[in-house]
């Protein structure tokens, strides 16, 4: 894997951040801090239009950088996409977005980093290999370990299709049993396909595999929203 996982603590006007020492190790889901709207350009709250004075102070949202009064920018919410150590002040609109993303970081990404076991088939091969699949700690790679070893850069993944069973025309419960993943080989336009199938040999693995696949599906949709894949 390119780059290490070493991090450093940095201070900005917005707060303390724990960021990778090397930009090449940055998470593909990360965001840069926005520039703050200069104080001289915001005589009034950019939400409620209240005029700032000695009593009504101005505050900058750490996510969008816009200027607000305390009433419109009072919430302190975790902002993992910018690597803030503590919850930071955000406007109401940004706070809602950040709250949804915190669940994404606390649940989906952690499930993927914990890993799960699948039979993996490469391309059109009729042979599969039992492999442990997980997201790297810096969230940049999908790592597959078995007799073989693969590292797929997240930004090279183009398609994630979850395979399910149990669907009926009238509706009903379905269960994720596998995934078809397509990605580009770095340095070329060649597209490679991998098929992941949950192992039926270990009953304890079924639930873990289904949770991992569900997390992968949500991460793939989130990544498109973040415009990183």
UniProtKB/TrEMBL annotation:
Pfam short name (any one): ZFYVE21_C
Keyword tags: Metal-binding, Zinc, Zinc-finger
Superkingdom of origin: Eukaryota
Protein's UniProt keywords contain Zinc-finger: yes
SMART domains: FYVE
Domain FYVE-type: 39-94
SUPFAM superfamilies named among the record's database cross-references: FYVE/PHD zinc finger
CDD domains: FYVE_ZF21 (cd15727)
GO molecular function: zinc ion binding
Protein name according to UniProt: ZFY21 protein
Gene: Zfyve21
């Amino acid at each position: 894997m390119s780059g290490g996982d070493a991090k450093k603590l940095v201070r900005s006007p917005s707060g303390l951040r724990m960021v990778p020492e090397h930009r090449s190790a940055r998470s593909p889901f990360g965001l840069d801090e926005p520039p703050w709207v200069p104080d001289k350009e915001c005589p009034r709250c950019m939400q409620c239009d209240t005029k700032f004075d000695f009593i009504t102070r101005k505050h900058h949202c750490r996510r969008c950088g816009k200027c607000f009064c305390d009433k419109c920018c009072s919430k302190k919410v975790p902002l993992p996409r910018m690597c803030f150590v503590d919850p930071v002040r955000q406007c109401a609109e940004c706070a809602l977005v950040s709250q949804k993303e915190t669940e994404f970081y606390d649940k989906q990404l952690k499930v993927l980093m914990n890993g799960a076991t699948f039979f993996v088939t490469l391309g059109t091969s009729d042979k599969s290999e039992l492999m442990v699949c997980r997201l790297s700690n810096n969230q940049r790679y999908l790592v597959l370990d078995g007799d073989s070893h693969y590292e797929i850069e997240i930004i090279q993944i183009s398609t994630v299709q979850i395979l399910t069973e149990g669907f009926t025309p009238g509706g009903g419960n379905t269960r994720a049993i596998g995934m078809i993943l397509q990605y580009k080989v770095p340095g070329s336009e060649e597209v490679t396909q991998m098929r992941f199938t949950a192992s039926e040999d270990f009953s304890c693995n079924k639930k873990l595999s289904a949770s991992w696949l569900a997390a992968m599906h949500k991460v793939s949709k989130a990544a498109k929203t973040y415009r990183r894949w």
